[in-house]
Amino acid sequence: MSLTRRQAFNNGLLAVAPIVTGVIPFGMICGVTAIKAGLSPTEAMGMSFFIFAGASQLAAIQLLAQGALPVVIVFTALVINLRFAMYSASLAPHFQHLPKRWRWPLAYLLTDQAYVMSINRYLGDQADAQTHKHWFYLGVASTLWLVWQPATAAGILLGAAIPASWSLDFAIPLTFMALLVPGLRDSPTLLAALVGGALAVAAADLPFNLGLMLAAVGGVAAGLIAESLQQRKQGQRT
Amino acid sequence: MTRAPVSGWGFWLLILLIGLGTFALRLSFIHLWGRIQFPQIVHRALRFIPAAVLAALVLPALLRPEGSIDFSVHNLRLIAGVLAAVIALLTRNVLFTIAAGMATLWITQMIH
């Protein structure tokens, strides 16, 4: 069964709807934090528009407030966003048939949530996994962008009115957890997650969030080794 | 907090640089794929990226909420996170997972 473009796009909208609940607090936190650090509302919105990557925005705001050197701020933000290059590599085979006018906007809209939801869809067995892949992605990613901007604005406006006791920031790791669990399909991916998580906890003190990159590379390596061992075992059996 | 010395045009230049750099990272392989041949190991490694990166984002937030590793019952975020993980496994539902985690955190904060 083959889907139309519109159906694939709508499937993306349906899939992303629950994720929005975790993205709104994240955007609001970016707005609140920017204002508290002394940025103007326009500057705070500009960050969400030009960078569109929450974790690096928060890090940049923090460093700005501390009076860090601009070169350090840029470097830190980009190291935090290195994971996007991995996502880019992972999605690339699925977008390789597309012209530039598609690839560039799709790349601008690439986020943790858009990546994971789309790749889980492509690797799963849904009807639209093989046709109009980029329309599903567009449904997810454009929704996230359209939610992110007003969420930042809401944070700017409501700034002082949100009590810290609400712990809204906890919605961020919870969102990632909700995305993580469905992807753990076999023991190599489970091992990749365990090693990645353990390394991130151990290396959390490294500067520039380098621990995240180290953990990602270590986790992927662990998954590859586990997969090789598994295949060797199966080879011996046959 | 006081405003950093970076202001006006300097601020916008900084944001533009981070934005362009981030876009370059996002575009990198999507642009190059099909133009360059990548070794087999790259193809095999791709499927482990989500699990490794997401776990690396989640676990420190649960185990080191205040900066240092905290395995005690006083680490409410760890309790809430474990419960949310169980709900995620059972329901595979994003909304239930986030709701369970937030609700657990609020309730434990009240009685703590």
TrEMBL record, chain A:
It is found in: Cell membrane. It comes from the Bacteria. InterPro entries: Brnchd-chn_aa_trnsp_permease. GO terms for cellular component: plasma membrane. GO terms for biological process: L-valine transmembrane transport. The chain crosses the membrane at residues 12-35, 135-158, 164-181, 188-204, 210-229. Keywords: Cell membrane, Membrane, Transmembrane, Transmembrane helix, Transport. It is a multi-pass membrane protein. Its main location: membrane. Belongs to the AzlC family. This is Branched-chain amino acid ABC transporter permease. It comes from Acidihalobacter ferrooxydans. The lineage of its organism: Bacteria, Pseudomonadati, Pseudomonadota, Gammaproteobacteria, Chromatiales.
TrEMBL record, chain B:
It holds the Pfam family AzlD. The chain crosses the membrane at residues 12-33, 45-63, 78-107. InterPro entries: Brnchd-chn_aa_trnsp_AzlD. Keywords: Membrane, Transmembrane, Transmembrane helix. This is Branched-chain amino acid ABC transporter permease. It comes from Acidihalobacter ferrooxydans.
